[in-house]
């Protein structure tokens, strides 16, 4: 009977190694903490604002405003409602709201604001629509008369973003057209 009591007490007791395992399990499968993910996303030029709610309607009617935004090492000229393909953005899922904070230039019909190099109070809001693969690129190497041929393929991972809002510039009043 004494052995039964000792086994029940060891089952209820918590080992030192189990706490470390729980701390490791708390990290996401990528192996990075939340702070590391936020820092890496900020380095690329975006911030994940969270998932898009079921009752949210982020898309607004077209406004004649544009922005030049930098994501990673690429620059895009976008306006409200545009859809762009960027290199795959880490740590964001489909229907996540993003805030692109590296805005280089804003423009409308009445004014243009150019950053040096970025505009500090400007931001562009976007929603992740899908993650996809680009068309296959074939790399073929050959050295003639040496029987040397190598074929390799590559498909770039892409993220499709839909621009929902541009902040940081005065938007002109939309004139309703009488039908």
TrEMBL record:
One Pfam family per UniProt: Ribosomal_L21p
GO molecular function: rRNA binding; structural constituent of ribosome
Transmembrane annotation, as ranges: none
SUPFAM superfamilies documented for this protein: L21p-like
GO biological process: translation
Family statement drawn from the similarity comment of this UniProt entry: Belongs to the bacterial ribosomal protein bL21 family.
GO cellular component, one term: cytoplasm
InterPro entries reported in the protein's UniProt record: bL21-like, bL21-like_sf, Ribosomal_bL21, Ribosomal_bL21_CS
Name of the molecule in the record: Large ribosomal subunit protein bL21m
Region (Disordered): 1-36
The keyword RNA-binding belongs to this UniProt entry's keyword annotation: yes
Keywords annotated in UniProt: Ribonucleoprotein, Ribosomal protein, RNA-binding, rRNA-binding
Species, as recorded: Panicum miliaceum
Domain of life of the native organism: Eukaryota
Thylakoid recorded as keyword: no
